[in-house]
Amino acid sequence: MHPQPIRHHYIPQFILRNFCFEDGHLYYFDKQTGCISVKDTRDVFMARNLYRDEINYAADPVKIEKDLAEYEREVAQIIRERFLNEREFFLTFEENEKLKLFFAIMGFRSLSARNSFNDSRSQHTKDYCLPYQPDGNVLDCWKRNLGYIVQCRSFEEVWNHPHIDEPMKVFSRRDTVGI
Hints:
Blueprint: E1 7-9, H1 13-16, E2 25-30, E3 35-40, E4 46-48, H2 63-84, H3 93-108, H4 111-118, H5 123-129, H6 138-149, H7 155-160, H8 166-173
Helix pairs in contact: 2-3, 4-6
């Protein structure tokens, strides 16, 4: 049996690899130290067990990470086939919807989004989650909704999903109105 993944990337490695040298490394600027270093993609833009969810997925705590990896494979294939190999590219309606939702999920799955749900001072996220999370665990609210959203492949699926909380439906769509 394979060990469970613990490095959960909030920027997918398939995107990071486009910025690598031939040896697979890239330059990385650390804002906290002000230093630039050379790193492997597996070591940047990640947090250990970021999506690990033992509350909603006790039988498979890394389910969200696995579902994100599957979505990333689908999107990487679209980008490879439609953008990188063609002189002129076109997207099917389904591919367009999948890409739009994927990029919305990128913002929702970020470390800063997670931290806003984990920040005890953040009244904004509490206002979103507490009606939907009776025990007051707003980080669980973020993980639970991310787990459902990542199983969708279009905003229509998100909007029609019976288990995604209403504020998260709005949040997932925030940057894509008018696209």
